[in-house]
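Good morning N.,

You mentioned wanting to compare the apo and holo forms, so I went ahead and generated the holo version with magnesium ion. This is what I fed in:
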Amino acid sequence: MAKSIILNALDIGTSSIKMMVAQKDLGTGDVAILAQTQVPCLGVRKGEVSNPQEVTQAIIVAKEQLKKSGATKVKGVLVNIGGSRLYAVSSQGLVSVSRADQKISEEDIQRVLQASRALNLPSNKEVLDVFPKEFLVDGEGGIADPLGLAGIRLETKVLLICAFSPVLENLGEAVSGAGLEVEGIIPSSLASARACLTLQQKELGAGMVDIGAGDTGVSFFEEGKLIDFVVFPWGSSHITNDIALGLRTEIATAERIKREFGTLTSQKGKKRVTKIEIPEKSLSFSPKFLKNIIETRISEIFSEIQKELKKISKQNLLPGGIVLTGGGAELPGMVEFAKQRLKLPCRLGRVRDIPGIEDLALSTCAGLLLTGFDSEVESPPGGKVGGRLRRIFKMFLP
Ligand SMILES: Nc1ncnc2c1ncn2[C@@H]1O[C@H](COP(=O)(O)OP(=O)(O)OP(=O)(O)O)[C@@H](O)[C@H]1O
Ligand SMILES: [Mg+2]
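and this is what came out, ligand included:
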């Protein structure tokens, strides 16, 4: 039996593509990054692949860079999906237990999960993944794992994540155009949640907020299960755009200003800076002016998150708190701002389980790998990581 597994992850983001190759030692459980790269990317809008050819070009560059850094040939990849057209919907399934002795088998569980996917969706929408909330055996609910229980009727209540088919098609086209094979597709904020949330937080009730460049993915967990999922079509690049408009400057300068001077923290004390000057661009503005621009956009995102919390009746009710990640969360003062707006414990989410990853923008990519390793360890020796969608959801089984 193999002593280690190697997997490849591809995070197609609005601002950049990240690729990582990692190895998991099956003896110690340790995961080590063998190679990684990040290349700028056009062709993605608000988290969705809008121009597959351009994305393919960026993936090819990333692949070449991995090759140069000594990675073995990359073929199969675990890939993310983003964009606000991903959505969650509740559903349920019901089947009769098939074995003569009425003991629930793995096959019954798979059948009832399959039944829960049979939803009347518009022809351009499809179910991407299924996340069980609970199972019911002969009407008795609250069962986390029905395997081996005796019963006649097996039901499940689930959360389905659905995607807009053309976005999925574009994603597939971009990846296959670069000569890669999709081994699994995982929504970005779920991958980030795997990387940054602890099992205890998911058990207590917690939220993952992944602030990317073009979108913000949010997923909520309770009792270890996914209870809600939503993506908002705004991210940190919208702050950059607002700065460019507010200061009448080009995007590259606005991005530099955001990273160098952007903050959500108010200045206090004698050393207050009253003016920021960028002489080579003939720009001069007050820190307060910049902070107002940033705050307006971030407020918009947090008020949507607050509305979502209200929708699922979890305002002030997630003891595991809100964990912020994605490059957009690097903005100074983000945690304090989130605490104040969401009235919940908040912290930055850095990658756990893989040492040495500090950059918040790498959480999704690391989470793709960790989700893949979880799924691989569960599957039979020598088995591949799921077909396009197979088995990935299993890590979320209670
Ligand atoms: N230090 C920083 N301060 C402020 N913003 C930052 C900082 N570092 C990165 N960002 C912002 O984070 C964004 C990139 O984050 P990330 O790589 O997570 O996004 P992405 O994956 O490309 O986009 P998406 O997930 O929305 O498709 C950019 O908009 C960038 O300006
Ligand atoms: Mg991202």
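Residues 287-311 form the longest helix (25 residues).

Happy to go through it together on a call whenever suits you.

Best,
F.
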